[in-house]
Amino acid sequence: MVEFSVWDILRNLLGAAQWTVYLSLIAFVGGGIVGMLLLVLRLSKLRGADTFVGGYVQLFQGTPLLMQLFLAYFGIALFGVNTSAWVAASVALTLYTSAFLTEIWRGCVAAIPKGQWEASSSLALTFGEQLRHIVLPQAVKIAIPPTVGFLVQVIKGTALASVIGFIELTKAGTMISNATFKPFVVYSCVALMYFVLCFPVSLYAKSLERKMNAVRR
Amino acid sequence: MRIQLDFWSVLSQWPLLVKGVVWTLALTLIATLIGVAFGIACAWVRSQNTRAPVWLQWVVGTYVELIRNTPFIVQLFFIFFGLPAAGVKLTPEVASIIAMVINLGAYSTEIIRAGIDATPKGQIEAAASLAMDRMQTFTRVILPPALKKVWPSLVSQIIIVMLGSAVCGQISTQELSYAANLIQSRNFRAFEAFIIATLIYLSLSVGVRRLLNWLGPRFLFGR
């Protein structure tokens, strides 16, 4: 039997951790784009848009991410498309992220005083111009700390992709612990690596929040 | 290409689904009761208003940050697969409950602490002027309004933990997602099984949220 040292375990886990990072980035960027579109749709006051986006958010926030991953995995396959864990995980995490981001950003836009909308419309700005020049620049400032904070949730969410066979940090941990019979050490290392990924982001979000409160006071 | 969906073949397995729902709710209930109590104790330590020993603040602070920055599935695997190597054997159900309690405890600590820190200084001084000791001040003056303030966020967190329990099926705890998996392995109707499970989760989360929002003001923090 081959002996695995802690260093071997760490080295292999580090290799797998990069996939966690890539998947997080895909989910975050994809979710950001879809979330932005949904937000604009909701703000546009098109008929039914509010209900649609509200239902969308409710659907993704009110069901387990694990089920969403399974549904994406088996759902895409149903259309005869050969699903890789990559595609399913990217799709599910993007949709999941978009629902949360659109809700976070909606709150930020709602925090902009109504007078700003009215003033800009009295200047004969179109809806698009109002958003681009008046509302969004102000909302973005408020939105940054909670958005960064949510990134931590996305990184943690990618761990579930291991269940549909995506080989990232958690899945690699399971495989290595099966090979080495050292689950205690392996899962400690896995947890530690997630911590190393997430904690700086958490701290950054917290410091951003503090900075913003200081400005407001 | 036609896609045929056969929901009936899944629904005919309803006893499994019912059992799954019961387990999901039971896990959530136990985890909530212990987890929130644990969270209150930790929030007491973490708050600036209560002057807990510094070493304890460090211990609780580390616990909270460790849990909040690692995925639930890793915590669960660590408890279920990792701890036996250290000599602690657990059944899947016990491991699930421990994982959920630890998880909810960490998040609710931060939520409840926010409420406790928002207590006006005057109220604490007023309690002291009534010759209340520290424990009485905390349980009667600080805690009830704090819980009331943060109850909506606490409810959201409880829902998140309930949805997170879907992961517990991975270590063969027989909750709802496990039932869905079992059904799809019997009749190969994976998509339908997970749609139905997802819809059940959705209605559970709506229902439990309503229930907790109704219960909270009535029983938890007095009228």
Automatic annotation (TrEMBL), chain A:
Residues 17-205 form the ABC transmembrane type-1 domain. It is found in: Cell inner membrane; Cell membrane. The chain crosses the membrane at residues 20-41, 142-164, 184-205. Keywords: Cell membrane, Membrane, Transmembrane, Transmembrane helix, Transport. SUPFAM superfamilies: MetI-like (SSF161098). The keyword Cytoplasm does not apply. One of its GO terms (biological process) is amino acid transport. GO terms for molecular function: transmembrane transporter activity. GO terms for cellular component: ATP-binding cassette (ABC) transporter complex. It is a multi-pass membrane protein. Gene3D superfamilies: MetI-like (1.10.3720.10). The keyword ATP-binding does not apply. NCBIfam families: HEQRo_perm_3TM. Belongs to the binding-protein-dependent transport system permease family. HisMQ subfamily. This is Amino acid ABC transporter permease. It comes from Rhodoferax koreensis. The lineage of its organism: Bacteria, Pseudomonadati, Pseudomonadota, Betaproteobacteria, Burkholderiales.
UniProtKB/TrEMBL annotation, chain B:
Coiled coil: none annotated. It is a multi-pass membrane protein. It is found in: Cell inner membrane; Cell membrane. One of its GO terms (molecular function) is transmembrane transporter activity. Its main location: membrane. It comes from the Bacteria. Pfam families: BPD_transp_1 (PF00528). Gene3D superfamilies: MetI-like (1.10.3720.10). The chain crosses the membrane at residues 20-45, 66-86, 150-169, 190-212. CDD domains: TM_PBP2. GO terms for cellular component: ATP-binding cassette (ABC) transporter complex. InterPro entries: AA_ABC_transptr_permease_3TM, ArtM/GltK/GlnP/TcyL/YhdX-like, MetI-like, MetI-like_sf. Residues 21-212 form the ABC transmembrane type-1 domain. Keywords: Cell membrane, Membrane, Transmembrane, Transmembrane helix, Transport. GO terms for biological process: amino acid transport. Belongs to the binding-protein-dependent transport system permease family. HisMQ subfamily. This is Polar amino acid ABC transporter permease.
